[in-house]
Structure formats: structure tokens, C-alpha cells
Amino acid sequence: xxxxxxxxxxxxxxxxxxxxxxxxxxxxxxxxxxxxxxxxxxxxxxxxxxxxxxxxxxxxxxxxxxxxxxxxxxxxxxxxxxxxxxxxxxxxxxxxxxxxxxxxxxxxxxxxxxxxxxxxxxxxxxxxxxxxxxxxxxxxxxxxxxxxxxxxxxxxxxxxxxxxxxxxxxxxxxxxxxxxxxxxxxxxxxxxxxxxxxxxxxxxxxxxxxxxxxxxxxxxxxxxxxxxxxxxxxxxxxxxxxxxxxxxxxxxxxxxxxxxxxxxxxxxxxxxxxxxxxxxxxxxxxxxxxxxxxxxxxxxxxxxxxxxxxxxxxxxxxxxxxxxxxxxxxxxxxxxxxxxxxxxxxxxxxxxxxxxxxxxxxxxxxxxxxxxxxxxxxxxxxxxxxxxxxxxxxxxxxxxxxxxxxxxxxxxxxxxxxxxxxxxxxxxxxxxxxxxxxxxxxxxxxxxxxxxxxxxxxxxxxxxxxxxxxxxxxxxxxxxxxxxxxxxxxxxxxxxxxxxxxxxxxxxxxxxxxxxxxxxxxxxxxxxxxxxxxxxxxxxxxxxxxxxxxxxxxxxxxxxxxxxxxxxxxxxxxxxxxxxxxxxxxxxxxxxxxxxxxxxxxxxxxxxxxxxxxxxxxxxxxxxxxxxxxxxxxxxxxxxxxxxxxxxxxx
Length: 651
Prior knowledge:
Layout: H1 11-22, E1 27-31, E2 37-41, H2 43-49, H3 69-77, E3 83-86, E4 100-103, H4 106-113, E5 121-126, E6 137-139, E7 142-144, H5 146-152, H6 171-191, E8 192-202, H7 207-218, E9 223-230, E10 247-254, E11 264-266, H8 267-273, E12 286-288, E13 291-298, E14 317-320, E15 327-330, E16 342-344, H9 363-368, E17 373-376, E18 383-388, E19 393-395, E20 399-401, H10 405-414, H11 427-437, E21 443-446, H12 453-465, E22 470-475, H13 485-488, H14 494-511, E23 521-526, H15 542-547, H16 558-568, E24 577-582, E25 585-590, E26 595-598, H17 605-614, E27 618-621, H18 629-642, E28 647-650
Parallel strand pairs: 4-22, 4-23, 5-8, 5-21, 9-20, 21-22, 26-27, 27-28
Antiparallel strand pairs: 1-2, 3-23, 6-7, 8-10, 9-10, 11-19, 12-13, 13-18, 14-15, 14-16, 17-18, 24-25, 25-26
Helix pairs in contact: 3-6, 4-6, 6-7, 11-12, 12-14, 17-18
């Protein structure tokens, strides 16, 4: 059905479109007087089109900017007063698991995790909205679909009439998408380890803008690779024009690209998963006293730029005794012959005016590690090759063909969750990234968790290689729309689907014999635990002042208080928790003495003595458990005497 807009023609919009048809680069985005983002003409750029000299204008500089960028930076730097509340009934192995599944706005969650997980994420993988015009546009604490954004921004009336004729995938949406992504990536940078690596899945709509944004946040040299993932080899047949789309991108970034190793994985796994990309190596596996090895390259540097002029210390003679396996080195101009030794000269250099290629190893390395060199005299002259001990090792390529969106659907169908997501990321794709970018005890963070593919991949990789990686998943509390397959299946939110996937995946892995961590601690973002004490003078009376003795909201449980305290003290919210009793009191022990808390309404000498006997690093009690300041002071002095190293706090 077509809705008539019942308005006159928008001459200004027509004029801007007229200019855009001829000079598309002079049309940009800017906020109007009403605060809405609108198409605007860059008059300086337009003037330049009609000038035969450089026209005056604002100072030029290379940067990515958009309406709302300063507000996005402010959003990244502003503190949050919210907290995380645990949900034992949604969790698996709540007290012992090291994994987290958090539901709520990811910007606030990332801020809450900044202190406890500062610099600890070895890998970040996110699959954010692709900004196609039909997905969700996040803002600071809510999400809305494209239609809602159009209404709020004045581009569509609430009756549904479009006010400005701009494609939903066009520039009008770039600003909102960039403002959503910028603060989240900026905060996430503080969580990424110095030698950590990040991956972002994206398609062509925002890949250019995203790469510029990552360059600004992480530094130009730290956006170091782009992986092309062929997600649909058949091609999307719904394109308006041009070729049918077959691929997406995975941008790779780091805090310090110089600390990133090659993405090494098992060649046999690569070949099985992506046979079109990884062919059989064909290298013979050999054995020596140190074990298996293969040889691929000779010792000389194949780049002729490294020669006797540019790398003089790397050009010399190598002597080898086949009987004793002794190795010696001498200068190039030293013609000394050693009985029983065969001499290898550097490889001839064909560049004019040069004689030799340099070796890839120094003299000291050759003498110290000669057992990792293979000396072959079978061809009439001595050839030296390096031994590769990682016989199945292979460096991942920047092309992925094999795992597809169909594969991702099949992953969910195997768990009885098929067709709940349109394009879930395939488990094998994410597991490959986990395999090449992480090792034994690393932390993997995904703050656009979606269907939970990343967490599932972490658990599955741990099963394969015996690792103990842990995950932190964050998913917006996005409701499943009425009438969708997810809602019909009984799921209220996207996060609920992710949690159920992890329960089922963990059960499958455990049934297969995996004894590692398949649990997760479920947390939800909520308002502050602290009671609201802000009142106007007219709202205050004597009774209200007496209520100020309780500083915690009435609906908060001991679990809520404990997690809030852990965050406030900078403790990892995934640390193990044990409960015990001291008389009638319940004690919560976090990480074997990192923190002991008691949230009883009354605290006496018995519980203080029980806490002091354990000598925790920190002890926390309710402020209201002590009826007077003198009682608080006495408790502090008692703990100081009995356990001098314990830090005491009240909540």
C-alpha cells in the first residue's frame, strides 16, 4: 500500500539531490537547527568545482568525522552508574564457571568491565549490525529498527510517510551507525591485551568507514589485515544492480600489531575445512633425534636486496662434517679447508655488480642451532635447508571459502534451534579465529553476542586442544518480535536464545567426554544497587531522613550486593564464589580470600572473628549492620588487630 504524504514538494531536497547527481562529493551530512541529521551542501567544495585556483576554506586535515562524533566521544568517556545483577536460575555452574554471559546495553557493560578486565582480552570478536537499513541501530541505552530511527529523526512521520527521499543504506544512516560503534570500540580498546587481536565482521555498507574508525582508535599501523569471507558462494540474488554479492569482510586490528604473531594453525584442519583454499602441502615428514620435521626453504635469503653490501655480516662460508655433524663458519675471503668438511658458499646473486645472497641465519644462530638445519650433499654441492618442527603448522590465509551462512544455520539446527536467526556466523569460522589467535588460558570477548557462536566456538576449541580459554559474551536485551520463530519457540529475548544454545552445546560436549568448563554465569545490566537518596527540600521530612540508614535498594539480594561489590573493587565478576556459615551468618568467599563478604542485617563479634581468622585481602559488610558509628569503629579496630592486611569496606 502506498501512503500519500499530502505535503508540497521539498524544493530544498530536490536542489540538493540535483547537485548530488553531478557532484556527489560535495553533499555531506550535518545537523540542522532542530538537531536532526540532514543532507547538506559543502559550499567550499562546490566553489572549488567552479574555481581555477585553490579557494579559501577551513584548514584541511585527514580525518573521519560525522555529525554526532563529539557526542560519541563524550559517551565513551562518561562513567556509568549502572551495575550487573546475577541470575543463578539462568546460569550453569554459577559458583565455579569462569565464563560470563551478560545481557544489557554493551556500552554500559564494557564500562563496568573496564577495571576488572583491563587489558586482559586476548581476542575480541564482534559481529555488529551491518547497517543495511533493516537491522537495529543501537544508541546509548536502547535499540530501534530503521523505521523507528526514521520517525525519531524526522525522516518519516508516525503514519509511515517518508519525508526525505534517501535510500536506507545511504549516507543518512552512516552518522547514527558510526556514533553507535565509536564509543563501544573506544572502551573496548582498554580491555584488549597489548598482544591481543580483534576481529570485526562487516559487509560492504560500512567497511570503509569502519576501517577509518579503527585506524583512529587503534592507530594506523594496528589495523593490519582484512580477511575476505565468502559467506554465500551462490551469490545474493536480491541485489538491485551489479554482481550478486558473495562475500563479507573480517577486519583485524590490535593495540600493538608488532606484538601479533602469525595466525598459525593446523594445516590438516585448514585443508579439511577449506579445501579450495588450502591444498595438500606434499612435504615429506622426516625424523631426527629431536623428532619429526619437514623442510621447505633453503637457508639463503631469496631477496637479492640482502647481499654482501647491505648485509655484510650475513655473508660467509659454512663448513659441515657429514661424519661428526660438526658445523663451522669462516669469513667469505677465508679459504681455509678443514679435513672431512664440505663447504657451502652463499647463493650466487644475479643482480649486476653483486656476487652473493645473504644467509637468513646469523653465524651465532647457525652454530648454536645447527641441529635445526638439514645439510644435503646429494646434488654434488652442499645445500642447507631449515627444519620446520611444526610439521602440521600453516599460516592462515586472508581468504575463507567453506564455512557459510548455511553452515551457521546447520550448527543451530543440530542443537534444535534452527531458523531462529537469519544469518548466524558459522561455528567453524569463529573456531578457526580462536585457534589462530589464542592459546591455553586466554580470554575471548564478544560484545555483540547474537546467537552465541563465539562462546560455543571457545568451548569447542578447548575440547579439541585441551585449552582453558574463557569467554565473556554481551548481548543487548533485545526482545524477540511477536510472531517470530524465536517468540513462538518461547524465547523472550535474543539473549535467552544465546543462553539456551550454550546450555545445549555444553551438554553435547560433556556427553562426548569433555570435562572442561561448559558453564556460564548469567548477569543482567540494571540500575545502581545504591538506594536513591536524591530529594528536593520540600520532599524531605524526619521519617525520610531515618530511612537513609539503609543505603541499598530493598529489592537487591545478597548475590546482587556481592557482584556489585566485586565490580566496585575491580574484581573479575567471573571469580569463583563459595558460601559458608559462621553461626547464623552466611559468608561469601570470592577466589579463596580475595574478598569475604557478609550482608546480614546485624554483625557481631562472632562473625568478625570468623572473617578475621581467614585473613582475607578484603572484607565487606552492610553499612546498616552497625547501628552506630562507634560500632563501625570497633569493628574496624578489631579487624585491624586480628587481620592487619585486610581492607575493610561498607556498602
